[in-house]
Write a structure and sequence with these properties.
alpha+beta; five-stranded antiparallel beta sheet; five-stranded mixed beta sheet; 17% strand; binds adenosine-5'-diphosphate
């Protein structure tokens, strides 16, 4: 890996900034909505209070007028000046008969020109009119018994000042609150994105150093990101196992290829040194073919194993009669077993259908039978059995051979592993690795039990059809 050519990208703060902006934006929007709502509610309450006051005053003054006429209204109005009330009585043509202003206006009654110019409003409905220097007044009116009109007005300035204060207070509060939101948003975005930053740092570290043992601690994270971190760690574990496995295979292949190829070269060189020896050359060529065959088989098997293990191999799954397959293979190995003085027998039901790739299954069972015959001395027995259990086809290969020592048992599945006592026999140390890979690719498994000196039993299980 050319770590020098790779430069880690600049840390992407864009997401963090965007999150902060979103948080701050939403917060500001909520705050604005809240302020508008309070403003609206406050304004409504003040208007309602004003309306109630004006209507009660209209009623009060109308009663006074009914009982004692305009002089009494005049007295009442001058007494209630402090209530900021404007009291006006006009005739049916809206000409002012009497008016009392809550402030002294230099324009005098001229200040009421706006009111006089205005058409008479429906009763009960408030209306706003500007009155001289006093500014805007809100009015309620009622028709008196003699046809005159009674209007009571109240200055709206106080309400407006109150609302203005409210708006100013909101504006003053908004600035620190928004700054707080900005800080809080940045903090939260920072915290939320920390696992992603750890993840990025770990990946950058792996890319830069090539070391796959780095992990992210999931304790620091919660929720969905915790799941991501755990999955990422698991993925790293798998990749590490795979890479280490591949390194191991490469080492083994390099080591195991050296011997046959060196031998090949030796045989060929010897033959070349004696060009006249035709028989010797023939023999050398035959040796070379045999040795090359061995190398090719080894490479093909290794390819098969890694294809099955990485899932790259396409299995042609279909119902396969395991009993029939076992029958054919037992017959096939019977001759070799007989030559070796080993008795081979089969115990199988009429039919036992599993879902499998027939060729691959044949390869797996063939390897088990080949080993059983190979590692069983003359006079021994090999028993093949087929049965069904727990929704699976169970194929057993039991022999009375040399057995496998307990310390070697876990290692027999390793690629290119060969037992100490087996070295005298032909073999590549790949048969059982392929058997296990094929079993697992079928969703099944292969197990071994062995007693050194007494024999070994391999059990292969794969799911039944249907
Ligand atoms: P090999 O080419 O050596 O047979 P395998 O992968 O098939 O490679 O088996 C790995 C090792 O497991 C063998 O070298 C042998 O030591 C042991 N082994 C496998 N099958 C048997 C058996 N039936 N009896 C005894 N030992 C066995």
């Amino acid at each position: 890996m050319d770590s020098g050519a790779w430069r880690p990208p600049a840390p992407a703060r864009l997401v963090s900034a965007r999150l902060t902006a979103w948080y701050c934006g939403l917060f500001s929007l909520s705050l604005a909505v809240l302020f508008v709502f309070i403003y609206w509610a406050l304004d409504g309450t003040l208007r309602k209070a004003n309306s109630e006051l004006l209507h009660s005053k209209v009623k009060e003054f109308a009663d006074t007028y009914r009982d004692a006429g305009i002089p009494e209204i005049r007295r009442d109005a001058s007494q209630k000046r402090s209530d900021e009330l404007l009291v006006r009585v006009s005739d049916s043509d809206n000409r002012t008969l009497f008016a009392s202003l809550p402030y002294s206006d230099p324009q005098g009654e001229q200040a009421l020109a706006g009111l006089e110019a205005r058409s008479i409003q429906p009763m009960e409905r408030l209306f706003t009119v500007s009155v001289g220097k006093g500014g805007a007044f809100e009015f309620a009116n009622t028709r008196l018994k003699n046809g005159d009109l009674l209007q009571i007005g109240r200055n709206v300035a106080r309400r407006r000042v109150l609302l203005k204060h409210f708006v100013e207070s909101c504006a003053a509060v908004s600035v620190p609150v928004l700054l707080l939101a900005l800080g809080g948003g940045a903090l939260m975005a920072n915290r939320a994105l920390r696992p992603l930053r750890d993840l990025t740092a770990t990946v950058q570290n792996i890319v830069a150093t090539g070391r796959l043992d780095a992990r992210i601690s999931p304790e620091k994270t919660a929720g969905e990101l915790r799941e991501l971190v755990i999955s990422f760690d698991r993925m790293l574990e798998k990749i590490q196992a795979l890479v280490e496995g591949m390194r191991g295979v490469l080492d083994n292949v390099a080591h195991d290829l050296r011997t046959p190829i060196t031998r090949l070269r030796g045989v060929a060189e010897l033959a070349l040194r004696n060009p006249g020896d035709l028989a010797g050359s023939q023999e050398a060529l035959a040796d070379c073919v045999e040795e090359s065959e061995r190398v090719i088989t080894m490479l093909n098997t290794l390819m098969d194993i890694s294809e099955v293990e990485t899932g790259a191999m396409k299995l042609n799954l279909q119902p396969v009669d395991v009993a029939e397959l076992a029958r054919q293979l037992t017959e096939f190995y019977a001759e070799a077993a007989e030559d070796q003085g080993v008795l081979i027998s089969l115990e199988a039901p009429g039919r036992c259908e599993a879902v499998a790739d027939e060729n691959r299954l044949r390869q797996a069972v063939g390897n088990l039978l080949d080993n059983a015959v190979k590692y069983t001395p003359a006079g021994g027995r090999v028993r093949v059995s087929v049965s069904q259990a727990g929704g699976e086809a169970v194929l057993g290969v039991r022999d009375t051979g040399i057995g496998i020592p307990a310390e070697e048992l876990p290692r027999v599945w390793e690629r290119l592993y060969r037992g100490d006592k087996s070295r005298s026999q032909r073999g590549l140390g790949l048969g059982l690795s392929l058997v296990r890979a094929i079993a697992q690719a079928h969703g099944g498994e292969c197990r071994v039990r062995s007693e050194p000196g007494s024999g070994t039993e391999f059990t292969l299980r794969i799911p039944l059809a249907g």
